UniProtKB/TrEMBL annotation, chains A, B, C, D:
<feature type="transmembrane region" description="Helical">
    <location>
        <begin position="7"/>
        <end position="23"/>
    </location>
</feature>
<keyword id="KW-0630">Potassium</keyword>
<feature type="transmembrane region" description="Helical">
    <location>
        <begin position="107"/>
        <end position="127"/>
    </location>
</feature>
<keyword id="KW-0406">Ion transport</keyword>
<keyword id="KW-1133">Transmembrane helix</keyword>
<keyword id="KW-0472">Membrane</keyword>
<feature type="transmembrane region" description="Helical">
    <location>
        <begin position="75"/>
        <end position="95"/>
    </location>
</feature>
<keyword id="KW-0812">Transmembrane</keyword>
<dbReference type="Pfam" id="PF06736">
    <property type="entry name" value="TMEM175"/>
</dbReference>
<dbReference type="InterPro" id="IPR010617">
    <property type="entry name" value="TMEM175-like"/>
</dbReference>
<feature type="transmembrane region" description="Helical">
    <location>
        <begin position="43"/>
        <end position="63"/>
    </location>
</feature>
<feature type="transmembrane region" description="Helical">
    <location>
        <begin position="148"/>
        <end position="181"/>
    </location>
</feature>
<keyword id="KW-0631">Potassium channel</keyword>
<comment type="similarity">
    <text>Belongs to the TMEM175 family.</text>
</comment>
<keyword id="KW-0407">Ion channel</keyword>
<protein>
    <submittedName>
        <fullName>TMEM175 family protein</fullName>
    </submittedName>
</protein>
<keyword id="KW-0813">Transport</keyword>
Length: 191, 191, 191, 191
């Protein structure tokens, strides 16, 4: 497919998902710091979700610079990944409204996991159609990365039973780790 | 016209339509699975609409890679198609709110049919201005495809009288069929 | 400036303005044709505004294919034009809610006129910096076109005093006239 | 990184932030000039925020035409800058709703300052990775500019104690000054 167009379409959807979460952040009711402070949990959840999406966009950018060819299969994997990501505003709004609930934290985690699985599907589709870049593309599904993700998810599952909102703290730290850890050369290809 | 710019403009509109449907999915009222479960019909309608739009985008991508020239006529057909698609969030929201109503299901079907007719108009406009790609462009309006669409619409009309919400199930299966059935080579041209 | 980037930025804003008007179209309250019918005025106002924006986009596309150079001055004229256009959803929502009011119709007309003046400013800025395309660019501010616009505005001003909502009908017909009348060759340049 | 894609992604986010502020401008309640007039403060705040974002976009465009290389570091600085900007709709909505409050004006100023600091971070990241364009990039963080910004912020801090809403007037004038004062040649590079 026309890679540039698939990228532009994907980017538009990602950009909208990132910013419609701001719409959920209500204008504080009353001109007081207290009213502003009432939004702190949602603000924090928004902050985490914003940067988790930016992290995944960075990986998507890395993938697409190494993949020469976007097949029909990869396009649909990309759509599934976008659909899962589009549930992020609802999950963020829900945990922001009820941060002390196992249900809302569990739902946030579920969306995160499904979204991650869809990303894996995308990576494998791209590998299958771009065998010449197999080595670079596989970096995103290397065992070290998978194990780390697994540990983060288990940590979330445990934390949810004590302090549910810790779930987004852990996922945020996980994202931060990947932002820092990703090799510097990951920004090299530029076509 | 500048094909790249028409594509980018179209993609931005399609991306927004796909994602504003998420805004209609309210944050559940209360931190319970029951509150989440109350959204299931809208969620399902959103899922179908999201992938129906993605399917049509895939066809649009196919068309525009084969069409060298976008005329004024084709531009306006494209706008009519976008306008019909822009009614999708309202139709989705309405059937999601009242899934057991013939009226809401009928409206969803009506929007779908008008949107399909506008797509046909776009295909014929492109064929008229790009006779050298006639063969590839015509694939999207081949009799087999038209008959299949017709059958799906009739099935919807019948189903609406018994279980209205079946309408989106049928259209969803129809979309899924086209995702799978579309020849693999449809992703080949990449300019 | 980087013309491609200014175009893409402009297109994203135009696309969002066109589609957020759909958000104003509420999901009908109740599963009846009557509830749907209650939205008819807003629907009609949305239809007109959607195609007026598409018409102006077409002209913008024509301008930018002929202008080689986007100066700082032209960029700011472009921003003023975008700002005026961004008032369109409010004007559309207001006349849709109160179609029998001189105030709402007058406001819609005012936004339309300011938007048109901003477009003129953009055309003159582009002419000043792209003298080699003066002839093609001037087509959009030729006397015939200006007189026609003037007549439409006067007709609106008169109509508002009798049947306010006629204002959008007249502007809609005006837009339709320009869609049809614009010379076929206006789609020729494609860079 | 792929500069074109980072630009397009950034532009989509900026465009959405600029236009979702329109959603906050409610359709006036009632068909009277009085109802329209009740929106005047928000309208004014929206006008200022719209053009402040456009001004910063212009600077971003200048930066990215001079920077050949977008590193991982610059990408994250860009994301922080986008995140700060995304708080603009809430700050604008809040000061629009309560213009006579020191808290809302102070919050608007705080968002503006954080946003400016994030922009500085972006400029320094780009300078570090594009030493060959150091001279052009440094123009945006030259002492003259910094001192001017400092004065504007101090003026805001003073004004907030007397007439809070003056804060956005001062920032608006500050933006206007930079629109006019930016050297004409800033639009020259076009790649």
């Amino acid at each position: 497919m026309n890679k540039g167009r698939v990228e532009a379409f994907t980017d538009a959807i990602v950009a909208i998902i990132m910013t419609i979460m701001v719409l959920e952040m209500k204008v504080p009711e009353g001109p007081s710091l207290k009213a502003l402070f009432a939004e702190r949990v949602y603000f924090f959840a928004y902050l985490i979700s914003f940067f988790l999406i930016a992290t995944t966009w960075y990986s998507h950018h890395y993938l697409f610079t190494h993949a020469k060819w976007i097949s029909k299969r990869a396009f649909w994997a990309n759509c599934i990944w976008l659909f899962m990501m589009s549930l992020s505003p609802v999950a963020t709004g829900w945990i922001g409204a009820y941060p002390n609930s196992r249900t809302t934290a569990g739902f946030y985690l579920l969306v995160y996991v499904l979204w991650g699985l869809a990303f894996r599907l995308l990576v494998y589709s791209l590998i299958r159609d771009n065998s010449e870049s197999r080595q670079q593309l596989q970096l995103l599904v290397q065992p070290k990365r998978s194990i780390f993700e697994m540990i983060a998810i288990v940590a979330c599952l445990v934390a949810i039973n004590f302090v549910p909102v810790l779930c987004i703290v852990i996922l945020g730290l996980d994202g931060l780790f990947w932002i820092v850890y990703t090799p510097r050369e990951s920004d090299k290809p530029n076509h």
